[in-house]
Amino acid sequence: MSAPTVGMIGAGQLAQMSLAPAIALGINLKILAADESDSAAKIAKVEIGDYRDLDVLRNFAKKCDFLTFEHELVPNGHLRALESEGFVIRPSSTSLLVAQDKAHMRKVFTENQIPCPKWQVINSADAIPAFPAILKSITGGYDGRGVQLVKDQLSARKVIAEWGKALYEEVVPFDRELAILIARSPHNQVATWAVSETIQRDGICIETITPAPNLSEEVANLAQQIASDIANVIKLVGVMAVELFQVGDKLIVNEIALRPHNSGHWSIEGSVTSQFEQHLRAVLDLPLGETKMTAKWAVMANILGTENSDLYRPYLHLFARDPELKIHIYGKEVRPGRKVGHATVVGDDLAELRSRVAHAIDYISGVVDE
Ligand code: ADP
């Protein structure tokens, strides 16, 4: 029996980081890149094509045993068409729609008693029940783009004029943000990882700490329960990240991603099985890997682009200073604020780990020079 071919649509850093476990397992990972400058396209042989074109997708799918994604941008109708032609897509178009359409997500969650903020689909600012309010574009938002905190009617009107309609949400007065990763296989094997705390700045995640510090067992169990309820409801196949707001001992779901996710990058070094390997195992319906942590704590920080575009030069100093530091660089053009890589350390002393990662980020960004 020869190893199957998994086709991944999208060639960004998530596809790039999926390559290492695919190589280790001897799985053929075929990647459909939008552009030859995409992260994975720079290091692997990929096909270049437009994921919005059904013929491109079909031709790509013909060469693969399974199709999966590293982003949620493929038109759902195209996926349904391919499924009706017999191609195997994991997660399915029906599952994926929940992550592609935020209004649909809220509806499915509400119908299934998954805790959500108060929400409503609106096409006029007059329909907003209270200010301040959160407005979200129903499709296509990421890294905080497509999320607006509006303080009054006037600013809400401007947003709605631009978007046409929007998802209104109450502003959740959260204590902190958490994320949990879960994987499910077609055989209904489910694996979850420890809950992470995610720390954001300007709508972008800058750091994750796993396990989330001072998280009661009760709330950790609740997070696992919510993630597995969602996985069951949407018939997940693959890895899913669930972003949560913690309010006291309650959890509210912010959003989900049906793929490996930034909040799970810590799992490369911090877990026996990384989210990238697990996603491949789940898509292939193989038994899932152990998800326990390799150390007491894992701290990951994103490397955001600055004026300093040479990301290799800092290696010499950083690796000499901290032999346990792990750096991942995505090979993307460095632009201010763009996620261009991440750094991870694992170990016993949380305060020390956080300061080591923070130093690495500051050194790479040029904030400190020693
Ligand atoms: P994106 O898909 O762009 O990452 P999110 O839905 O995750 O957008 O929202 C980005 C950030 O906006 C969240 O991490 C959170 O800090 C804030 N946010 C989103 N929804 C709410 C809400 N209902 N109440 C309070 N803050 C919110």
TrEMBL record:
ATP-grasp domain mapped to chain residues: 106-284
This protein's record includes keyword ATP-binding: yes
Keywords linked to the UniProt accession: ATP-binding, Ligase, Nucleotide-binding, Purine biosynthesis
Pathway(s) the chain acts in: Purine metabolism
Gene Ontology BP, a term: 'de novo' IMP biosynthetic process
A Gene Ontology term for the protein's cellular component: cytosol
Entry annotated with the keyword Ligase: yes
Gene Ontology molecular function: ATP binding; ligase activity; metal ion binding; phosphoribosylaminoimidazole carboxylase activity
NCBIfam families in alphabetical order: PRK06019.1-5, PRK06019.1-6, purK
PANTHER family the record matches: PHOSPHORIBOSYLAMINOIMIDAZOLE CARBOXYLASE (PTHR11609:SF5), PURINE BIOSYNTHESIS PROTEIN 6/7, PUR6/7 (PTHR11609)
Protein name, as recorded: Unannotated protein
Native source species: freshwater metagenome
